[in-house]
Each structure stands twice: as structure tokens, then as C-alpha cells.
């Protein structure tokens, strides 16, 4: 798959943050607090991951930790923890999250 960051539009990300995260926020704050401890991502990325935690991680921190190291075709064979070290890595993760199948 092509580098997803090339397709990232900040307007789509902001829309998701404004209209989806608040709806799911209250029931996902505990998961957000847990995953934020690793300090790998920006706060907005953590909020989106917490919002998607039911479908992405089954609300299990172990699944999140496994996901961090799992290489993905959507990330051109990188793991999430590797892709953030690449140029435009955060945009790559944002687009990945917006395209994640549970949305």
C-alpha cells in the first residue's frame, strides 16, 4: 500500500476529533489514561485510539501493546511504533486510524 501519510488531510482528522471523539469519550477515558503512559504519540492520536478501543483493541491493554509491535500492510510493513520514527510518521498513523475498518 502507498504511504498513507500522502493522503492525510487534516480537515478529516479535525472533523473526527470534533464529532466522533466527544460521543465516545466518557466511556473510553480509562483506556486513554492507560495507553497514554507510553508517551509515543500525540494527545490527539491517543484520544482517537481510545475512541476506537472497542473495535481495535477490545479494550485490552495487552492488545494495544501487541498492536504497537505488529507490522501492518497498511503501514507498508512497519509497526506503529516504527512508523512514527519515519518522516511524516504521525500523519501516517492518523490516516491509518481514520481508515481502520471499524469506522
In short:
By secondary structure, the chain is mainly alpha-helical. It has helices spanning 10-19, 21-35, 43-51, 53-57, 61-69, 80-83, 89-99.
Walk me through the structure.
With 103 residues, the chain is an all-alpha fold. It has one domain (4-99). It is built from seven helices and no strands. The chain starts with 9 loop residues before the first helix and ends with a helix.
Instruction: Report the order of strands and helices.
Output: HHHHHHH
Find the count of extended strands (DSSP E, 2+ residues): 0
Q: Find the structural class using helix and strand composition.
A: mainly alpha
* Tally of helical segments: 7
Largest sheet: none
Poorly predicted parts: none
Calculate the mean pLDDT score and round it: 92
The total number of structural domains is 1
Q: Tell me, briefly, the overall form.
A: globular
Termini separation (Å)?
Answer: 19 Å
Task: Give the radius of gyration.
Answer: 13 Å
Strand content: under 5%
Determine the fraction of residues in helical runs and give it as a percent range: 55-70%
Give a topology summary.
Elements (H helix, E strand, L loop, with lengths): L9 H10 L1 H15 L7 H9 L1 H5 L3 H9 L10 H4 L5 H11 L4
Helix pairs in contact: 2-3
Keyphrases for this structure?
103 residues, globular, mainly alpha
Amino acid at each position: 500500500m502507498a504511504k498513507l501519510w500522502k493522503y492525510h488531510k487534516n480537515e478529516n482528522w479535525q472533523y473526527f476529533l470534533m464529532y466522533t471523539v466527544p460521543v465516545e469519550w466518557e466511556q473510553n477515558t480509562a483506556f486513554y489514561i492507560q495507553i497514554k503512559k507510553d508517551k509515543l504519540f500525540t494527545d490527539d492520536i491517543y484520544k482517537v485510539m481510545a475512541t476506537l478501543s472497542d473495535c481495535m483493541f477490545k479494550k485490552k491493554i495487552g492488545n494495544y501493546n501487541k498492536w504497537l509491535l505488529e507490522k501492518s500492510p497498511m503501514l507498508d510493513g512497519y509497526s506503529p511504533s516504527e512508523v512514527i520514527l519515519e518522516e511524516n510518521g504521525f500523519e501516517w498513523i492518523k490516516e491509518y486510524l481514520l481508515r481502520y475498518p471499524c469506522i
